[in-house]
Design goal:
By secondary structure, the protein is of the alpha+beta class. It contains six helices and 15 strands. It comes from Pseudobdellovibrio exovorus JSS.
Length: 259
């Protein structure tokens, strides 16, 4: 009789274990970031993108708010764009028909390996920049923004009145700042009076508030270390007025070359 009782208890325990396995495994199958180092998160996605998780041989549809870790990669379709946000607040836009693999340079710095297509810097973030590896070359986010001609993403796909009221496209931002190049070069003209040999590149980063005013203006990277010159450039951006909008503040970068 005791043997039968133990047999029944054993069967019950096995049954409970099987139920737990059947519930837990499917959940973990799709939770790729569980107990994994977090390098970046998908904060915006349009179109279709395929995720290739490092810990699985399967392919899955990449979704918003997906957390990506070392060796995770994804591919965007011809109708897709993906905006990643790194731990330092930096943002990287992955364009259509692109493939990107994420990894680490060290414990605190992430690198995006561009295997196909292109990526665009939207925000540098605080502290240490993330890195970009493309065509066999390694760039910090700031350096990549300077050398990449396509730094300003074409984010003007949404054409409805509501979308226009909620945001300012990067095309519009670039157009307004390009109209200010005369003012930027006045700063450079003052500089070369003091230093005729001065030449180089500058990467400006700033935030556009809902009111259209600029804020948090910084020289993220420059080859020209002249305090008056940098202050002059910052003042030009500070005087630049964008139209008001109802969406969240926009952080962006704008490269300039002086020669």
């Amino acid at each position: 009789m005791k043997q039968n009782n133990w047999l029944v208890i054993g069967l019950i325990v096995c049954g409970i274990a099987l139920i737990l396995v059947s519930v837990v495994l499917p959940q973990n199958k799709f939770n790729f970031s569980f107990n994994k180092v977090s390098l970046a998160q998908v904060i915006e996605k349009t179109g279709s993108a395929t995720l290739f998780p490092a810990d699985s041989a399967a392919e899955y549809e990449l979704k918003n708010k997906t957390t990506l870790g070392p060796k995770d990669s994804f591919r965007t379709a011809d109708d897709a764009e993906v905006l990643l946000q790194f731990q330092n607040g930096g943002q990287l836009r992955v364009t259509p028909n692109s493939e990107v693999l994420l990894d680490q340079i060290n414990e605190s710095q992430a690198v995006a390996l561009v295997k196909a297509g292109d990526v665009l810097i939207e925000k540098l973030g605080q502290g240490s920049n993330f890195w970009i590896r493309k065509d066999g070359q390694l760039f910090s986010a700031a350096d990549y923004a300077l050398v990449d001609k396509n730094t300003h993403p074409i984010a003007g796909k949404k054409n409805s009145t509501t979308d226009t009221e909620e945001q300012i496209s990067q095309i519009e931002i670039e157009s307004i700042l390009s109209a200010k190049k005369t003012d930027f070069f006045k700063c450079f003209g003052q500089l070369i009076q003091r230093n005729p040999q001065a030449t180089g590149q500058v990467l400006l980063s700033f935030t556009i508030e809902k009111s259209g005013n600029t804020n948090k203006i910084e020289i993220s990277k420059t080859d020209i270390n002249d305090a008056s010159f940098k202050s002059c450039l910052v003042e030009v951006v500070a005087r630049t007025q964008f139209r008001s909008f109802s969406g969240p503040p926009i952080a962006t970068v704008f490269p300039l070359r002086f020669e």
